Amino acid sequence: MQRPPPSDGASMKRAWCPPYSGPSGLYVRPFLDTIKGCQSSTPTFRLLDIKPTPAYIMLLIWAATTLGLINHLLFHRYEPSSANIPLLLLAIEPIVLLLLIGGPFSSARLLWSYFVFMGSLSLSIIAYRLSPFHPLAQIPGPAIGKVTKLWSLWKAWLGYKYLYHKKLHDTYGPYVRTGPNEISVIDAVAVGQIFMKGGLDKGRYYETGRHRSTPPSIVSLVGEAHTAKRRVWNRGMTSAAIREYEPLVAKRASQLVSRLREHEIVDLVCWFDLFAFDLMGDLAFGGGFEMLRDGRDVDGVGERIRVFTRASDIAGHIPWIVNTLHLFPQVGRIIQEFNNFGRGLAIQRMEKTVVDRKDLWYHLTDEAGHEKEKPTLETVAADGIVAIVAASDTTASTLSSLVWFLLSNPEYYRRVQQELDTVITDGDDPFDVNRHQELQFLSACINETLRLHPPVPSNGGSRQVHLNECGRNIAGRFIPKGTSVYTPQYSLHRNPDYFSYPDQFLPDRWLPDSKFERHDTSAFIPFSLGPANCVGQKFAKRELFMVLSVLFKSFDLRFEDGFNSEAWPMGRRDYFVVTRGPLRVNLTPRYRNARV
Ligand code: HEM
Predict the structure, then answer these.
(1) Helix residue spans in 524-570 (DSSP H)
(2) Residue 326 DSSP SS3
(3) Which of 101, 301, 464, 545 pairs with 191 at a CA distance of 20 to 30 A?
(4) Could you give the 3-state DSSP secondary structure of residue 464?
């Protein structure tokens, strides 16, 4: 074996390091060879650096800066939809750069190369996003929002994005640039144009919750595929279909009341949650949860769903990271477990031979055979899970907010009770939907609750200008391609241009003889608008009337002594649908209605 000659370190290196070959094995003559004063023409790795010459430093800075600018130009021209390739490129480019420049390959030089490269890339991105050349430059907004999504991502992580958007709109007006390529709009004319037929499609926000192993549900589909899926859902939400579901609602609402009768003080948020999950389990999968019976969510279904919704919500703000996250086996496993959970429920429902009514499953599986192709088990499982996610927290949230508003405003609470006692007299069926049409004041309270506490306060209705069109004109403003457009209901509903005393709970504004100066219902969109709006809104309203009628007929409610009711709204966190803190309420049974 050939041994190194006994010599000083430098000559040893010269003797034993082979000349650098490029990736194809060709010898690449390092640029540095051409610069006088270079210490070595063969790149070798050293932990400690040999002091580089000023010429070397200048070359490194120039090359890394240029590389950063080129990257920005390329990313801008060919916007990546996934971070996988860009991350890889960002990781290897500074290394390749050093190899091309030549010279000793030290950790210090590598760090410098990364530092200058990333610095130039970041600075050029920041400068462009803040510059008047950016297509969204005319839309006002905070500098941090124009530069990066990370700021609003942080707000979303905390669950207070809806409050953040409200503050931004209070400061900047109805159009705010909330991200580099994202705007938030609370102009009612624009909102109509965004949602109605011919408006914008759902954006990438809705696609992010889906792993490639999961079939698309109605939520993530767009275009014709969405129209086809929506047809199936629409059949499950006709008036006739909803009439078939009423006995299921009545059964679960009665069970809720009898369970509440066992307690004097309860956390209503918790009980409404149990009710809503049980009901949607019945509707979508023929039952199976029985949370009301157990008095708690034994299998952690609600928690699983909320973790999933929250993760999807966060990922929705940085959609390009999703494919990268999916590379991690742990993430895939969690999603797979969630899919299996839906699949398990679907299989369980299929095994049920006797089902006495046409439930939502009946329509989602197209048992009546209206469609050319039967949906697969996986597809129906995904839609069934969507039904539970979309319908449980939304209605439970409306129920708890409405109780909170009424208990905070005893005068309105009295009016609701009086109305109920007049319309549904003792012995009448509190679930009789014909009577519910007479409950005008309760209806006004429901609307006012949905206005002030929309269950989907900032993301419901996220849309995007398609990447293959050049842009859209919305209410006289040019919105360039690729822009994500949000219409946060919480801010829109509190826009003083459309509602007098916008932050106050004033249900009278919804009554036919209301005298409020400003009351523009085109700015009231708790269920969103257009062809992809909430398909379940009629059913949701029916459910709300049924539960609230029987609840207020059965109990006198008041906040538990010592309960900090004023702080309760701050416990509302926005993770697409809002989550809520406990609502501690004291229950005193009124008369026992014969029909409950
Ligand atoms: C108070 C209760 C509810 C509220 C406030 C609400 C609100 C919303 C909102 C804001 C959207 C987004 C629409 C968009 O992107 O434009 C939505 C979508 C949806 N909701 Fe609801 N929802 C409620 C109850 C329900 C119920 C009870 C069901 C089912 C039984 C349901 C099923 C759905 C479905 C399937 C979608 C997706 C529709 C599509 O993409 O075509 N929702 N909902």
Answers:
(1) 537-554
(2) coil
(3) 545
(4) strand
Residue nearest to atom 14 of ligand 1 (CA): 461
Task: Indicate which atom in ligand 1 lies nearest the CA of residue 219.
Answer: 40
536 within ligand 1 shell (Cβ under 6 A): yes
Query: What mean pLDDT do residues 197-221 have?
Result: 77
- CA–centroid distance, residue 41 to ligand 1 (Å): 66
How far is the C-alpha of 267 from the C-alpha of 254, rounded, in Å? Answer: 18
Residues with Cβ within 8 Å of 160's Cβ and at least 6 positions away in sequence, in order, are 573, 574
Could you tell me what percentage of the chain is helix, strand and coil, using 3-state DSSP and rounding each to the nearest 5?
55, 10, 35
Measured CA to CA, the distance from residue 413 to residue 533 in angstroms comes to 31
Nearest atom of ligand 1 to the alpha carbon of 226: 41
Report the percentage of the chain scoring pLDDT > 90.
Answer: 52
Of the pLDDT bands very low, low, confident and very high (cuts 50, 70, 90), residue 210 is: low
**CA-based angle 587:589:590, to the nearest 5?**
130
Give the ipTM. 0.99
Question: Which residue's alpha carbon is at the smallest distance from atom 41 of ligand 1?
Answer: 532
Biggest CA pair distance of the chain: 107
- Measured over the CA atoms of residue 424, residue 428, residue 432 and residue 434, the dihedral's sign is negative
Q: Domain limits of the chain?
A: 9-130, 201-589
**CATH number for the domain whose boundaries are 201-589:** 1.10.630.10
What residue ranges in 83-153 does DSSP mark as E strands? 105-106
Contact 502, 486 (CB under 8 A): no
Distance of CA 163 to the CA centre of its chain: 15
CB of 455 sitting under 6 A from ligand 1: yes
CB 453 within 8 A of CB 397: yes
For 529, list phi and psi in degrees, rounded to 5: -140, 165
Q: Which pLDDT does position 151 carry in this prediction?
A: 87
Q: Would you say the pTM of this structure is higher than 0.90?
A: no
Count of helices and strands (H, E) across the chain: 23, 14
Residue that wins the pLDDT comparison between 53 and 526: 526
Ligand 1 pocket, mutate which of 230, 534, 542, 572 (most atoms under 8 A from CB): 534
Ligand 1 within 6 A of 391 CB?
yes
161-184 tens-digit pLDDT: 999 999 999 999 999 999 999 999
41: number of Cβ within 10 Å: 15
Nearest CA to ligand 1 atom 32: 536
Burial class (CB in 10 A: 0-12, 13-18, 19+), 236: buried
Question: Known binder of ligand: residue 470?
Answer: no
pLDDT in tens, 392-413: 999 999 999 999 999 999 999 9
